[in-house]
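Before relying on records like the one below, remember that each one covers exactly one chain. Contacts with other chains, cofactors or solvent are not represented anywhere in the record.
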Amino acid sequence: MSEFLYMCEYFEITPEQFFSENIPKPIKLERAVKALDKLNDADLDRIIDLAERLAEKPGIA
């Protein structure tokens, strides 16, 4: 079990994220959340708007 927890720590994900089938890219999402957490509200709103526009484009999944 300690090796599993070490792997989660290494990849900077939680055990829940490791086993979740609903999160297709847990490592990348965790990195994004950490970076977004450092932004001020105005910049965070800009990133959210951009992400929503990109997600609407065909071929984006």
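The chain has a mean pLDDT of 84.
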